[in-house]
Amino acid sequence: MRRARDLIDREYARPLDVPTMARHALMSPAHFSRQFRAAYGETPYSYLMTRRIERAMALLRAGTSVTDTCMAVGCTSLGSFSSRFTELLGETPSAFPGRRHRGRLGGPGSGGGRAAGGVVFVPWDLYWGLLLP
């Protein structure tokens, strides 16, 4: 399981699918998906997209365009990239670079996302990225 997670962390910008990740974990795709979710609290795809959004935050802060950022982090659909970004951070990628950001900590493996009342819960490592310049 750890090998597959390390693969995602290293290779987030290249095309990765569940069968590829499962091969690195030496499991069938279905078993891998279940075990990954049990171990890390989110699906392999959700974990991959969270890594991509973390990197996208840094690129957007550096002034990279939304479209170039989307492609640089391995997303092929600007729509799905924008939707996931907004889901995790509560604002669109185009609005992100211009504001000081604060997230509410979701804890390790929380998967991020919205809670009741519009509070944005951010994964632990993503939270620290918000605090650093």
TrEMBL record:
Domain HTH araC/xylS-type per the UniProt entry, residue ranges: 2-99
InterPro entries in the record: AraC_XylS_family_regulators, Homeodomain-like_sf, HTH_AraC
Keyword Transcription: yes
Protein keywords: DNA-binding, Transcription, Transcription regulation
TM spans (from-to): none
Cited Pfam families: HTH_18 (PF12833)
PANTHER family: HTH-TYPE TRANSCRIPTIONAL ACTIVATOR RHAS-RELATED
Name listed for the protein in its UniProt record: HTH araC/xylS-type domain-containing protein
